[in-house]
């Protein structure tokens, strides 16, 4: 945290967050570094990541001119299973499978770059997958009922996840 971001730069909060979430889910994170908006650089980093059983990427999966990740994944042979879901936050999430000769197929998650979107998508898509791959179940994922303290009006029909706090009742 000692470096001060320059103009147009932000701190990398997604990397540390996703590494800890992977650990919490029973995985062993392998850091690939930050890939710039440059196809050859992304191809090199993603290629290294495809050596792992599961690859979780952050950012570059939406529709902007510099959202290059889906294009690079296709070029590397990763078959898209889905891209974009009816969810807020997290609509641009990407998932695909990389066929691996003689081994189990590699799973690839492209999380949105927005930290809250990435967090929501990790818990909904990657965490249950990692739990199953680790030989467990999703039974240890904390679930419960909650009562909202105020209304959250939504437009449209997609599920919306809001931040909240829980308190144990006596």
- Distance between the amino and carboxyl termini: 39 Å
Q: Which word captures the global form?
A: globular
**Total beta-strand segments:** 4
**Helical percent range?**
25-40%
DSSP helical segment count: 4
* Residue-averaged pLDDT: 89
3D structure, described in words:
The protein is an alpha+beta fold. Helices cover 28% and strands 12% of the residues. The chain is built from 4 helices and 4 strands. The chain has helices spanning 14-24, 39-49, 69-75, 115-133, and strands at residues 54-58, 79-83, 94-98, 106-111. A 4-stranded mixed beta sheet has the order 1-4-3-2, sandwiched between helices. A hairpin with a 7-residue loop joins strand 3 (94-98) and strand 4 (106-111). Helix 1 packs parallel to helix 4.
Which tags fit this structure?
about 170 residues; 4 helices; single chain; alpha+beta; globular; 4 strands; four-stranded mixed beta sheet
Chain-wise SSE layout:
Elements: H1 14-24, H2 39-49, E1 54-58, H3 69-75, E2 79-83, E3 94-98, E4 106-111, H4 115-133
Parallel strand pairs: 1-4
Antiparallel strand pairs: 2-3, 3-4
Short description:
Helices cover 28% and strands 12% of the residues.
């Amino acid at each position: 945290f000692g470096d001060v971001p320059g103009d147009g730069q932000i701190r990398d909060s997604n990397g540390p967050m996703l590494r800890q979430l992977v650990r919490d889910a029973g995985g062993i994170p392998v850091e690939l570094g930050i890939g710039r908006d440059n196809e050859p650089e992304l191809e090199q980093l993603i290629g290294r990541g495809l050596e792992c059983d599961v690859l979780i990427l952050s950012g570059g999966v939406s529709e902007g001119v510099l959202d290059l990740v889906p294009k690079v994944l296709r070029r590397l042979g990763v078959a898209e299973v889905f891209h974009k879901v009816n969810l807020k936050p997290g609509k641009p999430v990407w998932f695909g499978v990389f066929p691996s000769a003689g081994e189990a197929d590699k799973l690839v998650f492209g999380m949105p770059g927005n930290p809250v979107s990435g967090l929501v998508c990790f818990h909904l898509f990657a965490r249950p997958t990692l739990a199953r791959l680790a030989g467990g179940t999703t039974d240890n994922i904390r679930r419960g009922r909650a009562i909202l303290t105020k209304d959250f009006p939504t437009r449209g029909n997609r599920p919306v996840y809001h931040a909240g706090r829980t308190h144990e009742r006596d």
